[in-house]
Amino acid sequence: MSTADTLLPPDLRAQITELARAEHRPRAASVSALTLVQAHFGWVSDAHLAETASLLGMSPADLDGIATYFNLIFRRPVGRHVIMLCDSVSCWIMGRDAVCARLQARLGIRPGETTADGAVTLLPIVCLGHCDHAPAMLVDHTLHGDLDAETAEHLADTLRQAAP
Amino acid sequence: MNVSERPLTAMIGLPDGPPDCAAYGRAGGWQAVRRALRDMTPEAVIETVTASKLRGRGGAGFGTGQKWSFVPRDPPATRRKYLVANADEMEPGTFKDRLLLEGNPLQLVEGMIIAGYAIQAGHGVIFLRGEYHLALARLNHAIAEARQVGWLGENILGSGFGFEIHVHASGGRYICGEETALLTALEGRRAQPRSKPPFPQVGGLWGAPSVVNNVETLCNLPHIVANGAEWFLSLGLGPDSGTKIYGVSGRVRRPGAWELPMGTPLREIVEHHAGGMRDGYRLRAFLPGGASTAFLDAGQVDVAMEYGAVEKAGSRLGTGLAILLDDRTCPVGMLHNLEHFFAQESCGWCTPCRDGLPWVERLLDAIESGTGEPEDLDRLHDHARLLGPMGRTFCAHAPGAMAPLASGLKLFREEFDAHIRQRACPLRETA
After folding, report:
1. In 10 A of CB B198, how many CB atoms?
2. Domain coordinates in residue numbering, chain B
3. Where, residue-wise, is CATH 1.10.10 in chain A?
4. Is the pLDDT of residue B169 over 70?
5. Which residues 6+ apart lie within 8 Å of B2 measured at CB?
6. Torsion (CA) B401, B405, B411, B415 in degrees, nearest 10
7. Interchain CB distance below 8 Å, B171 and A31
8. Which CATH architecture has domain B246-326?
9. Alpha-carbon distance A123 to A111, whole Å?
10. Strands, sheet with B256-261, edge to edge from the N-terminal-most edge strand
11. CB B407, CB B295: distance < 8 Å
12. Burial A63-81, CB ≥16 within 10 A → b, else e
């Protein structure tokens, strides 16, 4: 992605300022502001991080300490779709390793990587609270359960076929 | 089953989705907040909840009324205070709060108004897991509607009490479930636990008096206030009051979650509600209430799922959602998976936890993959002792991680030895 040198759009800057204003202290909006930036660009670049930090009255290093602390803030580019496959205990018992192996083979990537066409990033995630339908994964904002290698592979194929 | 016997889930699973404000009221909602704000003093609400013996449903089991009682009453209402709903459900194997959040968000809203009134807090915050996208949408919708109808805002029901709720979607870290780490995260800092005292009830969010209650705990409040403490006490089968959302995951026929009387034996939950083990699988052991509870042996499946009985059996009720280990799944592999989680989620603040947990993970990895040595078991025992419940770490994260390890080392001694002797996982072929 080539967004690293782009400034935050004015409406996004206004939203971040508003988030900061609504909090008891501006820095309390750190995660929600980073989440907003990520929703727009897919990830948080150094330039966007610095600009967001200045809107919150923080140093870039201070905000980066928060960005890198949390699992759901991406400081590197990701694909158009993000698959988060649960790697916690109930999903492990129910065969998530086989699901992961098939996804890796089909997508040609390992967890933490993005397909060459930029369509899909595969990530592990902590328990999604869907243990009665293990193995489970989150595809973007949608939860999928009762997976096996075939259903997961089919879902991955659908993501890659979808228009960018 | 009589609806009054499963108050928490009576309105959940309706064909039209979660009830709106009007439907919630028709089904019995808002009675409690009316009673509390019109007929009861904040002290009377605290007394009722204390008398109900409601204990925290997030895992620690602290008395809810007692927790509230530490909030300073003086100076009164003018002081800034916070009521925080802990909706950061992240304990592996736990899926009860998501059910309550998605199924009936207004029940949580009503519970929060009551709790806020009891401690005279005007500010409510829901700390929600960032991965719970559907819950976020439904909570925001419910809160907006409740505000529009007048259940939130200034001067609710003309009582003079005002209350607002704001949802914070987390960036995702297990330690945020620990209440002081949660408050630190809300202040826009790396979510490291704080030293206590001061306790949050005295110096919490932004230094103000704050109470952090679990979602399921808060959802019980409307029913306790509406029906009384005696009624709530009568719901439990043993010493603990109320109902509990229990659940089972693993190789059972029907994994799921069910609201049942507090103290229901795990055997009844596994065999009756979850349909028993799947064909070809036998129960080997179980974690009664999440990843940070100690293993109990299959022979202990008759344990009553209540705080005291599970503790007496050698574990903790925790979240009350059991994870079952079957006889065809490798216990060493399961422990490796659990300790990988705890190592990854250590906040890194204190050395024993930050360095000890990855060491445990590497030792288990070596044993599981066939390169373990007999001395590795000694190292694991050392860690289970040194990181265990004796206060050498800053918070309860590492002791929680050691609960399944210490119990697993005892319970699965043969399996550990077989891995080291055969230099391979004996269950690999059948897995």
Report:
1. 13
2. 3-235, 246-326, 331-422
3. 10-67
4. yes
5. none
6. 140
7. yes
8. Roll (3.10)
9. 5
10. B256-261, B243-249, B321-326, B283-287, B296-297
11. yes
12. bbebbebbbbbbeebbbbb
Which residues of chain A form CATH 3.40.30.10? 81-161
pLDDT at B389: 86
Option in B169, B249, B334 nearest A32 (CB):
B169
CB contact residues (below 8 A), chain A span 19-48, against chain B: 22-32, 34-35
CA atoms within 13 A on the CB side of B179: 27
A162 vs B: CB within 8 A: no
Q: Of B168, B190, B345, which is closest to A65 when you measure between CB atoms? A: B190
C-beta atoms of B132 and A129 within 8 A: yes
Average pLDDT over residues B149-173: 97
Listed in sequence order, the residues at least 6 apart from B246 whose beta carbon sits closer than 8 Å to its beta carbon are B257, B258, B259, B260, B264, B269, B273, B305, B320, B321, B322
As a whole number, mean pLDDT of residues B247-267 equals 98
Interface probe, candidates B131, B186, B278, chain A, greatest A C-beta count within 10 A? B131
Find out whether B322 and B352 touch, Cβ atoms under 8 Å.
no
Please report which confidence band the pLDDT of residue B4 belongs to, taking 50, 70 and 90 as the band edges: low
pLDDT tens for A76-87 read: 999 999 999 999
% pLDDT > 90, chain B: 94
User: Cα(B384)–Cα(B414) distance, rounded to whole angstroms?
Assistant: 18
| CB-based contact B112:B215 (threshold 8 Å) | no
For residue B18, give both structure tokens: 């979660």
Instruction: State the amino acid at position B234 in one-letter form.
Output: S
Of all residues in chain A, the one with the smallest CA distance to B98 is: A129
Architecture label for domain A10-67: Orthogonal Bundle (1.10)
Considering the domain B3-235 in this protein, what is its CATH number? 3.40.50.11540
Provide the pLDDT for residue B59: 87
Residues composing chain A: 164
Q: What is the mean pLDDT of residues B159-185?
A: 97
Q: Which CATH class is domain A81-161?
A: alpha beta
Query: What is the C-alpha to C-alpha distance for residues B307 and A33, in angstroms, rounded to an integer?
Result: 40
Architecture of the CATH domain B331-422: Up-down Bundle (1.20)
Which chain A residue shows the shortest CA-CA distance from B335? A89
Residue with tokens 């974690």: B287
Does position B1 have pLDDT exceeding 80, yes or no? no
**Following DSSP, what letter does each residue of B293-310 receive, concatenated?**
S--EEGGGTT-BSSHHHH
ipTM tops the 0.85 cut: yes
Interface probe, candidates B123, B283, B319, B337, chain A, greatest A C-beta count within 10 A: B337
